[in-house]
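User: Hey, my collaborator sent me this sequence without any context and asked if I could get a structure. I don't really work with proteins. Can you help?
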Amino acid sequence: MDSPLYIIRDRGRYGFIDRIGDVVIEPQYLEVEDFYNGFARVRFNDKLVHMDEMGRLLLKHWFRFIGFFEEGLARVQLVRRWGYINRRGDLEIPLRFDAAGDFSEGLAPVARGIYFGFISPDGEWAVRPEFDAAGPFSEGLAAVQIGEKWGYIDKSGTLAITPQYDRAEAFRDGVAAVWEGEQWGLIDTAGQLVLEPQFDAPQGGLAGEFFNGMATIVQDEKYGFINTEGALVVAPRYTFAGDFGNDRAPVELHGRYGYIDTAGHLVIKAGFQDAGVFSNGLAQVKNKGHWGYIGTDGVWRIPPRYQAALPFRAGLAQVVYQNRWQYLNEQGEVIWTER
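Assistant: No problem. I've predicted the 3D structure and written it out in structure-token form, which is a compact way to encode the shape of the chain:
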């Protein structure tokens, strides 16, 4: 399907609608998750199973755990062993690993015994297991732990960046967050220090995660932003800051929320009780106890009348009105409502 599906609720059961509000999968499950890479995880007979966008369940095997599909394969666990299934539900890589991560850039980190290496989609070793821990490949490099320190290897298994950090994240936008003690900074793919470790962990997010070229930083319990060059663009002066979307980021100042642009200017005054991230040119904000949506100019597009509101996703947003779920389009029209 070209358009995403959206979770609906009916008398405690969950199903899915399409973008125009037609029911595609009847509400029948006690627990569901959003679709990701063509599949959703739903609870069936007290087990999580994969379901495709036609509502068909992958029931060839029962597993203790199922992961998300990445590059056509999903990690699964039966008793203690891990393997991978394909999009038909067949066991593509046998259950023979003691730990397993998702595939990324053609390789997946797995463990045999206490050591981690990397396998290719045929289940064969691409990098022999000799690391104490390992993360996914990103931008040609993967973080690995040797002893107490983390560094990075390339796809041949050769050390590209010497283990010297207490923690190391995946590369994004040419940089990766690395930790010394409880503070993080940035390095580039050559291992050069872009920004000395000096920031605390952001609340509810990953260190060094960039949106619109900006990442939140926390210093002395105040929030600001850096860019991918490590330059401090917005000094840490806010009590909270969210991610950028549509070149706007929510910030909290004196107990109220507004929005700044990528230059750090307050472009929507801090007058809201709460605020979300911009998506599709709209952001959910709370005013006088109710949620609505504003545009990037701060003008109301959908008036505040909802008990709860989520960000827009591919043209629709989920809200709660009079204790019932609804989906709205970008004009504020109700596309679907819970019975």
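In plain terms: The two ends are 26 Å apart (CA to CA). You can pass these tokens on to your collaborator as they are.
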